[in-house]
Amino acid sequence: LGWSGDGKWVFYREPPGFGNSAWVGSVDVHVMPATGGTPNKLGSTDGFADHFSNPAGAEWVAIVNGGFRFAGDVGRTLGIAQDGVTDELANAAEGSVSAVAASHDGRNLAYVAFPNEPGGLDNAAMAARLAGERLWMQPLGGQPLQLTTDLAYRDEHPVWSKDGEFILFTRIDAGGQGSIWRISAAGGQPELVQDGLGFGQQGISGLYGWIEWSDLLDWWQPR
Q: H-helix or E-strand containing 130?
């Protein structure tokens, strides 16, 4: 998965068995000191880029923990892994977390959450849950601020500006069309950056409903 921002810890996933299917979905995530030693199990996470965020220089990483393999699974929480253990983020928005991004200075988190609605694993139930994905911002140790409320979109893939003033994020409308937006981290109205983001012939289904947004777009920010 990667390193802690301070370079002291290495994070990795370890499935319970062999074969490609063992890697699909949430599998055990471990951490061990970069100097060697005994690894600790932190929980479970998917292999998607949006489920692991490690700000430069920070002693911690943010991890989306739990779930099975479907994007609409309920029960995923937001954890902060530090010193070889994971603690659930206090005061996080209620619901299931589907993406997280730490600001470059490590002071704030942007994340996407949707309500823990009851229902099965059929496509209709999972689509209904994902339609409730909304963007949140939260200072570490502070209270969450809901940034988006528009029922016409599901919101995903937050990425911070280097100065921490804005969050870039993606949206999908009811017709399955993707777009890129930005919003002030302090709240306000989202601004459309780019419409017509293409998914190709596969559409938005991806793998069990997940979209690997990092394969579709990136935001270059000079040092």
A: helix 123-130
Reported confidence tier of residue 78, pLDDT bands at 50, 70, 90: very high
Grouping H, G, I as helix, E, B as strand and the rest as coil, residue 174 is coil
In three-state secondary structure terms, 100 is: strand
* Closest CA relative to residue 136, chosen from 116, 163, 108, 117: 108
Q: Residue 175's Cα: distance from chain center in Å?
A: 23
CB 175 within 8 A of CB 202: no
Secondary structure of residue 25 in the 3-state scheme? coil
Residue pair 89/78 in contact by the 8 Å Cβ criterion: yes
pTM of the entire predicted model: 0.92
CA dist 89 and 94 (Å) reads 11
β-pair type (96-102, 108-114): antiparallel
pLDDT at 202 over 60: no
pLDDT band (50, 70, 90) for residue 22: confident
Q: What angle do CA 110, 111, 116 make, to 5 degrees?
A: 155
Rounded to whole angstroms, the Cα distance separating 215 from 138 reads 26
Predicted local distance difference test score (pLDDT) of residue 214: 85
54: its two tokens: 């490690």
